[in-house]
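Subject: Sanity check before I submit

Could someone independently write out the structure tokens for this chain? I want to compare against mine line by line before I put it in a report. The sequence has 506 residues.
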Amino acid sequence: MASPDTATPAASQVNQRIDFATSPEEYRHWRLEVDDTVARLTMQVQEDAPLYPGYELKLNSYDLGVDIELYDAVQRLRFEHPEADHALKVNFCKFTNETRNSIEDASAHSGQRYICAVNWPAAGGGYELALACDHIILIDDGSSTVALPELPLLAVLPGTGGLTRLVDKRRAYDDLLLSIGEDWLAREITLYLKRTLKRLDVSSRSLVALVEPGSCFAGTLLELALAADRCYMLDGVLDDDEEAPTVRLTEMNFGPLPMVNGVTRAEGRFLDPEELRDHIGRDLDAEAAHDLGLVTFIPDDIDWEDEVHRIPNNVGLSDNRRLQRALESWQANYMKWWHDMGPDGSTNFDVYLRTAISVETDGWANFGFVKMPEYRWGIFLAKPDSDRVISFGDHRGEPVWQEVPGEYRAPLRRLIVTQGDTEPASVEQQRRLGLTCPSLYDLRNLFQINVEEGRHLWAMVYLLHAYFGRDGREEAEAMLERHSGDADRPRILGAFNEETPNGCRT
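---
Independent answer below. Compare away.
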């Protein structure tokens, strides 16, 4: 197992917690000085203070830690000094671009002007920071220069209009926000909502909105559903004591919250969005919302579970809400683990995988092909056989167990945990293998193996949750907390913790 001294920087970064909370007294790379209505923000990158150990900052270059401090500084200027009227945003490449977009947004809407004084070479992303400002002052000292990013990276940081800055630059309640829109705080809240929704528009994740009884998709919150790739709205109710869900349009859907291209989501989705204005303020049921194109699908109470099942299964999870909620909670942690420790760069490949997309009432699954980000893991067990008997050991010939006997509880749990732990360990072991696959065919086979390992893990986790109570739930969580080669929380089998010459685990 690799020691902390020999672990690669990439490996040491995987499990490190990033803290976005900071303050001017804690800044390492910026100095913020406020004098009446003038704020001076000076960049002084400390080369020996990177966010991650082992990553050296050179000649005023920057990492995520630099932008975290910049974000904090501009947000403080906006809300701690409202007389100055400003704007800003969050995340590297994304964080980097959003920070610059917010500077541009502040110039356009918050009455602030940014001036960039360059007294050192400014290139690539650094020059994008200068381009985001209203004016650039370059010292004529024979060494200070500016340079654009490499041509393939020229559009990595688009401006607020969706174009590169080289082309684009130089040109609480809905009713309450609209009624006091000129108030500085109401304006900043609306602008912040706008920027947050823009992040959803450009997210690399597939988003699904569920409109169920108790939902409140109206006005600003309806924008969440309009930003999603798919929106399911229940046609009717699931229980007799519920009210059928509705959605409602407000004036917030027609201007204040545009997408990154400057048009509203209604304008981007509908040929004649003005027709929707006739329905402002009305509670629209599933059929009306579907006719207007506001939602994608409107399954009734019979089809709802099959259509929107968070966990495809043939074990009757919907009949055991406690178990269903426990597994859905674990599922969120599993998806985070998969994102952090699963196949590296899997969202970028044009590879389609076989996955269950629905389950019939008799327990059979229908399969389709999706890209890795849309893959859905499920729980599918063989159909129970009432005549099945134990085929080996001291209990040979006896009916198979429906409950775990007390005397075998601990060893059986340990067997399941040990087997289950090998599944995510195998995925972690092969995390970067896809980056060297010779063809899409090989890559598809590798990814299919990866997701099958995940499916086997799900089967083990279901057994732990269903038959081993609190101990089982804790063991299921621990399988996501251990990592191959982790000095503090290694995998159970030592073979998965050994370091290999190419930096992977085996």
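---
OP: Matches mine. For the report I'm noting this point. The first helix runs from residue 9 to 14.
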